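Case study: UPF0223 protein SAMN05216232_2907.
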Amino acid sequence: MSYHYPLDESWSKEEIIDVVNFFALIEQSYEQQVKREEILAAYRKFKDIVPSKSEEKTYFADFEKASGYASYPVVKKARESEQKTITINK
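Here is what the predicted structure looks like once written out:
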């Protein structure tokens, strides 16, 4: 990983950890597989920190630009799937 996660300086240390964990799970879903419930739990924490849909889109776009990994397809698949693990094929 040679890029930076999109973060806000006003967030607490715990919020930063939660957001980084969320984006790390997004990354992992492209490279390996992730438990569906882990993604959904991390996304709920992310939404507690970033409740605005427009801000969410901005953070998702910044992360995709930096990493090449799109967050929305992972969250969508986790929400709609009944599978226990999520893997995204690029």
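For the exam, be able to explain this: Strands lie at 34-35, 85-86.
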